[in-house]
Design goal:
Layout: H1 13-31, H2 37-45, E1 49-55, H3 59-75, E2 79-83, H4 104-116, E3 120-127, E4 132-133, E5 136-137, H5 139-143, H6 172-187, E6 191-195, H7 215-233, E7 237-241, H8 248-251, H9 254-257, E8 275-277, H10 288-295, E9 299-300, E10 303-304, H11 308-319, E11 328-332, H12 346-353
Parallel strand pairs: 1-2, 1-11, 2-3, 3-6, 6-7, 7-8, 8-9, 10-11
Antiparallel strand pairs: 4-5
């Protein structure tokens, strides 16, 4: 950029300081990414977010979804949260990709198809927790076992729900941020969902860095690190599941839909521009989490699953909040429906149409 300053030696000191500030501001603005016209229009025309969460972890699954995107758009879907995790052909760390990952080219094609049909594509990469499932430990902790919060746990994960990575290991963030950047590049994404649900393993006695630590501060550290990269550096929106910010006993949600290991205090330690996906799958007389999360200043995207009556009750409770930060409804699938049947699945139809009544 051409210098905005005249010959500084001839100017009084206060004027020099003022002009330096002006120049710094101009330089910062020039470095900011230009507004995305598609996203600007999407926000203008979609006051209510009607989303579907699903797993897309291969080129074949992406092809199947590409065929269904027009049907989902016709139903009223305007956002897709696509869980990819390690099933992507990462360029930064190819050693962490699954055996038959989704290619960058296919991610681009899928995202382009979504946008052409008015649907916002949001990739999801599970962070911190959910680093294993059943006997299978996922690639980050397999390739880099030093990142494991429970390094002495049985290799077959007996007695564990899901492993976590250590939020304080200095080697974790550089790798995870690079993986997220790869997904952002592939999907040309303007938002990223970082998962973060059901984190039961924190401050493990097996971790030399976290042993005896405060679980709320450890959880908040992981959230803030991700936010610093995704929102602070990349200027994207960050979404995550909201269960670890809720008190499981006080809300009577229990340890799955909320926290019973102390992480709920992290709600006051993280930025409020994070979008929290508040998932609850049973029909209840009330959903106290809605008011709790909204009162803290977050935007909230309530999330249901496979029970139609529960979805309808949750949507109605969401509408009763009468709050601009109540985004709409996200219909999760968790394998209960195959991609070709998405637009005909009753819970999705209920979740989408309940916001159009």
């Amino acid at each position: 950029m051409k210098s905005l300053l005249p010959n500084r030696s001839r100017l009084p000191r206060l004027i020099q300081i003022f002009l330096l500030a002006v120049a710094a501001t101009a330089t910062a603005r020039a470095a900011e990414p230009a507004p995305d016209p598609w996203l600007t229009e999407w926000r203008r025309t979609n006051a209510v977010w009607r989303g579907v969460q699903l797993s897309v972890q291969s080129d074949g699954a992406a092809d199947a979804l590409i065929e269904q995107v027009p049907k989902l758009a016709a139903l009223g879907v305007n956002a897709l949260v696509m869980e990819v995790n390690y099933n992507y052909a990462f360029t930064s760390h190819p050693e962490l990709a699954s055996a038959r990952p989704m290619s960058k080219e296919k991610a681009r094609e899928l995202a382009k198809t979504c946008r052409a049909n008015g649907i916002r594509p949001i990739p999801l990469f599970n962070c911190l927790g959910h680093q294993s499932w059943a006997k299978n430990t996922f690639s980050l902790l397999t390739k880099y076992p030093e990142f494991d919060e429970t390094p002495d746990a049985p290799k077959d994960n007996q007695g564990l729900y899901c492993r976590s990575w250590c939020p304080q290991h200095p080697g974790v963030n550089p790798i995870v941020f690079a993986l997220i950047d790869d997904l952002v590049d592939g999907f040309q994404a303007d938002a990223v969902h970082v998962g973060m649900d059901e984190v039961f393993i924190l401050a493990s006695e097996q971790c030399p860095r976290c042993k005896g630590g405060d679980t709320a501060r450890l959880f908040a550290r992981a959230v803030n690190d991700l936010h610093g990269h995704i929102v602070g550096e990349r200027k994207l929106e960050m979404l995550m599941w909201g269960d670890r910010f809720l008190d499981g006993k006080a809300t009577h949600y229990g340890k799955w839909e909320a926290s019973e290991n102390g992480t709920q205090a992290a709600i006051d330690l993280v930025p409020k521009d994070i979008i929290l996906c508040d998932w609850h799958y049973e029909k209840r007389a009330d959903y106290p989490s809605l008011q709790i999360l909204l009162s803290k200043g977050f935007r909230v995207w309530p999330t249901g699953w496979k029970k139609v009556e529960a979805t309808e009750a949750f949507v109605e409770a969401s509408k009763q909040q009468h709050n601009d930060r109540m985004l709409g409804h996200l219909c999760s699938t968790w394998g209960a429906v195959k991609i070709p049947n998405l637009a005909e699945w009753p819970p999705i139809i209920a979740g989408i149409t309940a916001w159009t009544k």
